[in-house]
User: Fold this.
Amino acid sequence: MKPPHVVFVPLLFVFLGLWMLSWRIYLPLVLVRADHPVIATRTPTYTPTPTRTSTPSRTPSPTVTSATADLRIGYIQYSGGDEYARVDNVGSTVQNMSGWSIQSYDGASCTPLASQIYWFPSGYVLGPGQSVRVHSGPDAISAPPGDLKWTGSAMWNNDGDRGDLRNASGSVVNTYRYGGCR
Assistant:
């Protein structure tokens, strides 16, 4: 019959080994013989070493130049039966004219008239390099998209007047003056 420590020690290691595995603890098992002294040794284990990866460099993004619409009243034809104000887009992008307006002034006093405002139709756009004429007077024409009709009444005073082009926020973008209305 074997001495009790020879049987007990291996069973103890089996029990500890199962317990360590259930807790995910991995230690090297050292077999001990009763007739040899215990020698402590370490078994090398695999430990992953992080490796440096190169940091990606930022690719320079291209410089974006902001395209802008630049609208202005380029001319007002104030005499005759077909008057018009010509609005030019001298910018580099399309401008949605929804909510934009042209306002005519009273020629004698050169004050704005609330009754003389033309509103561009919703969804109307003016491309870069394009113009639109807004007609008024008894012979006013309507041929969209280049010619829009404001009214059959004369809007521009022959002796002098002022026209304001306003954006959708109501701010004056450009003013055209002629004659005595400065």
